[in-house]
Every structure is written in structure tokens, then in C-alpha cells.
Amino acid sequence: xxxxxxxxxxxxxxxxxxxxxxxxxxxxxxxxxxxxxxxxxxxxxxxxxxxxxxxxxxxxxxxxxxxxxxxxxxxxxxxxxxxxxxxxxxxxxxxxxxxxxxxx
Length: 104
Description:
Helices cover 27% and strands 35% of the residues. It is α/β, with parallel strands linked by helices. The chain has one domain: GMP Synthetase, Chain A, domain 3 (2-Layer Sandwich). The protein has a four-stranded mixed beta sheet. The longest helix is centred in the middle third of the chain and has 19 residues, at 55-73. It is globular, with a radius of gyration of 14 Å.
């Protein structure tokens, strides 16, 4: 579980939101970072093969994902939409959450 700006967020909640959106591949990463005294989240999602992925389509997809996450989970996040095949794949269990917050 992650606490983002006072909201309890489970990675499975984010996955459930992303799986329901058309035009997205099932590959994503959640990056946690610190903004001042609060934690923030960046969501990197991959556009599905065959879906439009030019600059305008990526921007529109990112805005749509951010709006959907905000309405379903209640947390604001930065979204980056990547072209198909650009997010890393792994052989074993996928690394979905990357904690970039300072330790200590």
C-alpha cells in the first residue's frame, strides 16, 4: 500500500483502472517521488499496439488516464504515455512500483 497525499492507494487499484481503459497495453510502472513534504506518483503506461501513438495521441491518452485515475481512486498523478514496446519487460515477476523517494 502507498499513501499519496493522504489517500491509501494499492497498486492493484491502479492496475484495475488501467485494464479497463481501451487503447492501453497491460504494461505500466508506478514511480513514487517526493514533492516538498508530500509523496507524489508518476504513472507510466504503454499504449497498445495498433493504437495511435503520435505526440498528440500520447498527450490525450495521458490526460485521459490521469482523469480516470483521479475519478476512480481519488488521487492526482502525473501520467506519461509511452509508445508500444517501450516499457521494460521482465522474465519473472514484473517490477511495477519503483520508489524514488529519498531514504532516511
